Amino acid sequence: MSGRFSRMRFLLPAVIAGLLCLAVGRAEARLGVVLLHGKMGGPRVFQGLAEVLEQQGILVAAPEMPWSRSRYLDKPFEAALDEIAGAVDSLKQKGASQVVVGGHSMGAVGALAYVATRGGVAGLILLAPGHVTDLPAFNRDLGNSLATAQEMVKTGRGAETREFLDKNVGRGVYTFSTQPRIYVSYFSPDGLAAAGRNAAHLSPKIPVLVVLGGRDPLSSQDKDHIFSRLPANPLTRLVTVSGGHMDVPWESREEMLGWLKSLPQ
After folding, report:
1. pTM (2 decimals)?
2. Are 99 and 33 in contact (CB under 8 A)?
3. Are 126 and 108 in contact (CB under 8 A)?
4. Smaller CB count within 10 Å for the chain: N or C?
5. Where are the chain's structural domains?
6. Tens of pLDDT, residues 22-61
7. 80 Cβ partners below 8 Å, 6+ apart?
């Protein structure tokens, strides 16, 4: 008996230490949020929103994506999803026990594609989604650009650089230069970026917050083409704020914070 008590005397401190470490780990559990900016934008669009979230102890990453003004479009869409994965990993390394991925406009489409195809997150936030390529009118407005790019890829010229058409809220249609293979990856209606398809294929286990702008011309299509296709989840929400397309990130702050706090820990 004395030998058994002797062994217990040495084991007990280790057991207590393990329990303390577990308790500390739970106490320090933190939520992380990745925020992806829109087309021709940059991380600064989230400056105020990020400050609000960080004041509540939430870790925030707002990377510059391949669709920023200074990078547009410098790598294929799938490679952009790899960058989102890097941002998720960076938050986990900083102590985030759960990560939510969200985005504004084209960033919302990127966030949706990432969560639909790769998963592994606690939630998804879509702020005024834009660049919805699987809407019939989207590529119709861009003439023959997609067909030209697809033909160049098919004939082995996918790495050449040339001008293509694009469009953006408030700017209309314009030209920019990229490689055909990159253009196809972002603009194909049945490609990885197709928002309606990705919404329909999202795991029902992942809650979604969708915030639309009352004065955003894209809100009606976003509600019908994206939100309506999301699988049922008791924490999935559709919220409309008063502003226009570019106002949505800031005006979403209170709804976003409340929704994030409602997620299971």
Report:
1. 0.89
2. yes
3. yes
4. N
5. 30-134+190-262
6. 333 444 579 999 999 999 999 999 999 999 999 999 999 9
7. 65, 66, 67, 110
pLDDT digits (tens, 9 = 90+) for 229-250: 999 999 999 999 999 999 999 9
Among candidates 160, 166, 198, 149, which has minimal Cα distance to 72? 166
Mean pLDDT of 184-208: 97
The CATH code that applies to domain 30-134+190-262 is: 3.40.50.1820
Q: How far apart are CA 251 and CA 159, in angstroms?
A: 41
Interstrand relation of 172-178 and 123-127 (parallel, antiparallel or unpaired): unpaired
Give the integer Cα–Cα distance in Å for 233 and 237: 9
CA 169 to chain CA centroid, nearest Å: 19
Residue 218 CA, distance from chain mean position: 18
How many C-beta neighbours within 10 Å does residue 119 have? 11
